[in-house]
Structure prediction request, 297 residues.
Amino acid sequence: MDMRQLRYFLAIAHEGQITRAAKQLNMEQPPLSRQLKLIEQELGVVLFDRNGKRLQLTQAGEMLRNRALALMKQFEETITYVQELGEGVQGVLSIGAVVSCVSLLPPVLRQFTEKYPQVTFKIQEGDHFLLGELLENRDLEFIVTRLPFQSDFQSQHYSVLPLPSDPFVALLPTEWCPQNTRAMTLEQLARFPFLTLKTDRTTGMHTQVFDQFKRLGLEPKIVSECSSVAIAISLVSAGIGAAILPESIMNSFAPPNVAKISIQDADLQSNIGVVWLRDRHLSKSARHLMDMLVEFS
Prediction:
């Protein structure tokens, strides 16, 4: 089986019909049917159940599709690598960022696009688990994320480029904050009802913050667990609770009625980094953008 036949197979698997797959491939139906038959004969397995109008992948077909998708992406990476040996920085760069790190990208991307105008971007926002899956599927070259990076995959698959850490700050409704207050202790903050970033799978930032309260024997009342930064900040703005979040997050928001306060007695830092697959060749554009992220940090 060659790469051409893999493309045929993937088109049929995607469309679920020979006719639609042939149209996608700009070829006639009979030759495509013959190619599928040859593939199955060569492998000695049935790849599709032919019940009704739609073709359903068998267990062997599912395995071949998953492996074929990975092979095609590696093949495309190889082509890109060879082309870049003689070309400038160009093409489409697909990257990801956790929501709390999105604010780090605009100033870097502005300079990057001025320097490399032939590069366009696909930017995916999400949590560690979504971005980890996209990274493993090679849909993204790298992601900008809070560390440690948590996903459903083994950490040894990843390479990590640390960026400078980001200090945590307290966010309070302005009506709760005495005028000209620039800093508070954890004991003072613990008197307020609190909002925290926490889901069933993402607890890292919550644990880091509330371990500091526990260290001093403090236990703030949590009035809401929030699944996103935007929700937490909007609730602070509405006067529902206080929150402790990385300072750079505020670069993405301009909420009314929110005061940003330093924390006097806790050196809370959020680690940030760039994460990519250890065995993946990064394009020129990806490597240049990573260099700029380091320079801007």
Observations:
- The radius of gyration is 25 Å.
